[in-house]
Amino acid sequence: MTPKEACLNLLGLSRRARKQIAGEGLALAAIRNQSAKLVFIASDTGPTTAKKFHDKAQSYNVPVIDTFTKAELNAATGNKRTVIAITDAGFAKKMVAIMTN
User: Fold this and answer.
1) Under DSSP, is residue 21 helix (H, G, I), strand (E, B) or coil?
2) pLDDT tens digits, residue range 45-82?
3) What is the pTM of this model?
């Protein structure tokens, strides 16, 4: 299993465990109130949205993963969203570890 596949599997698992927030508005609020531990941004999202979330995540020290397309994120979570925030520190730590290897 590739690191991308392993991370997408964990993303689906975090959805079933209700440890993620999907959607731009809710994810932005999660970053601001510091409940977001990791943010996924679709690689094919618009440049304005990508910049907004990258900047906001950087200012709140939230790691960002932007290697997956909208289709990959949708297939993993079952949600048609371009931004997903992970709210569980354990899931976030494991996903970052997988993607940095």
Assistant:
1) strand
2) 999 999 999 999 999 999 999 999 999 999 999 989 99
3) 0.92
